Amino acid sequence: MNDKIVAPSVGEGENVTAGFRDAHPSPAQSVTISDVAEAAGVSRQTVSNVLNAPDRVRAETRERVTRAIADLGYHPNHMARSLRASSPRMIGCRILPVHAETVAAIQDRFLHALAEAGQECGHHVLLFTAADAAAESEWCTVLWRTGAVSGVVLYDITPDDPRPERLTAAGVPFTAFGRTAADTERYSWADVDNAAGTASAVDHLVAAGHRRIGFLGWPEGSSVGDARAHGWLMAMDRHGLLAGSHRLDIRGDDTTTSGTRLMKELLDRPGPPTAVVAATDTLAVGALHTVRDRGLEPGRDVAVVGFDDSPAAAALGLSSVRQPIEEVGRLVMAEVLRLTDRTLGPNGEPPAEPLHRLLAPELVVRASSAPPQGLIPAGVEARSLSR
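That's the Alanine racemase sequence above. Prediction below.
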């Protein structure tokens, strides 16, 4: 998938000279379709339907929109509408830089799934970069208002992420992979049950006979990292192992170097763990380096389980929790396309409720955590390294 640079086109009702500088037009500028939608208490699509397909809108709604158009003095920019109609159908998504010391490629897999799902519906993914969440919100708003994209997808959501609120306020159709800590009912999202993933890893290790199970995680403040840490915590507590494991929870950056260092710290402590659950395959690969450097055998002497089921996990015989990324991509694309057409149903019913979907991950057991032959726990599938 190639990065593309899109020059600003003329947004509907916006000044050409505003360009990317004015993602939020001031009252001094021409009245936009968004202004009409806000005044009438409807979506942009409903205003567009009143102008172009009034028979699709209920009479009372049509009258309210028409009154708002007259009160505000709105005049559709026909040239911009023509440009918009002739532009490709695109869904925007910010692409994040990849750290040099990561073995996972979750965003790559997600973008691939997103692109495949969009292509089946005649849409494509427009990738762009942004310095931070604020810049991303501005770019999303500008790309949508200028007609470059039909909607956008948000990735890597944090607990207090400002992007959902900002895009909702701007009227930009979007769906998120992940969710914030609060107000999740106000926008569409699909997410993986990260807590259930690490909990399943703990259950597997307990069933294999382990009682001192450590956790290699990220510093607090990440939705994904915090959820995975919570899963380890809850599972250890459920098995009655938490009291003796409070010093086995250790955090660091998501790099292989960090995983190597954290594992050394754990193995050097009194009462070291016989098994560890890592928040990512990247940390788990670093942990494997330490285990092998000390002449220990993963699975026999110290069990290691990662998260993400990366290609590296399969190559190294690393047990890992697999995310249903392909299904997430399909769900997110289907939802953002639904949101780009917020019209009333054939019988005048309102649009469907936002998507709120939490998907279960799957534990893939390999040699790094498999118990001795003949002692594989019931109900756990031990998969070969040649997957």
